[in-house]
Write a structure and sequence with these properties.
Layout lengths: L2 H29 L3 H30 L1 H18 L2 H7 L4 H4 L1 H31 L14 E6 L4 E6 L1 E3 L4 E9 L6 E11 L2 E10 L6 E9 L4 H7 L8 H9 L5 H32 L9 H27 L4 H24 L4
Antiparallel strand pairs: 1-2, 2-4, 3-4, 4-5, 5-6, 6-7
Helix pairs in contact: 1-2, 1-3, 1-6, 2-6, 3-9, 3-10, 6-9, 8-9, 9-10, 9-11, 10-11
Amino acid sequence: MTRVDWIVLKRITSRIALTVLIFFGLILLVESIDSWRYNYLMRIGGVQLAVIGMAAAAAGWLAKGLPLLILVGTVVGVIDLQSRRELTAIKSSGASMWRVMRAPMLAVLLFGAFVTFYGDGVLTTTNRTVDADIPGSDPTFAPGQGLWLEQSNGQEHYVVQAEHVLQGGTEEAGFQAFLPDGVSEGRIIAPTALLKPGYWLLPSALRYRAGMPPEQLTNFKLPTGMTISDLRLKLQSTEDMTFYELAASLGNNLSDPALRNAVLTRFLRLLCLPLLLVGSLFIAFAFTAGYRRTNGYGRAIIFAILSGFVVFVITEMADRAGSAGVLDPTFAACGPAFVTLVTGLTILLYKEDGWA
């Protein structure tokens, strides 16, 4: 790397880090308002656990707005270069804007890859571990209601309910099955139920049918199309899964299309994160790196920040649509990154290559 690369990289990365730190402090301040959560964590694990829980929650919110933070931080960094006339001097030496962006672009790309393959996993695991200690935050048990699941055996639909979930979801305690009129009509109650490939195994159960006495069942098999992977995904949100857990889930047998859409959208969104961050960098340079006779950057800053909010809103809307199956998951996850890159490159070409 040349001295020019180091100067530009130092200015941009320091301003991005400052922006991230400021927003992290603001979000941490909001998280501190939840005094009940802080006091409970402090009571069971001391001040250290309470601080870790607050910091992890704040970092989780921060990770969702990384493209916007990268854009704002880059805008501040480029304006700093402009105010010191360093960018003017670099351009006058014959260096193009593409040459100026080379070092920060590589740094943002590597940072995005680090977040995707490592940082997000650490953050997700920490939040999941902390939340597991808080009453009412465990998705495997709903107080007063338990777990309700709609099932299908290929021909008929029925509903099962369990009071507790054990063994990572493969064993249900306080199991009940509400069956429609058919071969296995009525209601089945069992102390425990084990999910096996293609069926629920009830070691001991009672079946109740209208006009008939209760029937004792032993090792009864209740057909279901749900797989173990489907059940485990129903017990947790895709937001609580790491990149590698998402990849493993996609490699398993997911029979529920809705679950597969949600997992694929989240997986591809993490995979496209480095490109989305680079696109935000391009947009920031496009609006603020042009030559100006004065130091008036208000209009450029407003346009850049508005573009960042548009990117954030589109990304979140596409994520919701892809997870719900309204949009194709590949399009929903990769579309915002592609649009951001094309938008930034188009504006840069228009401004820097003599078209305007």
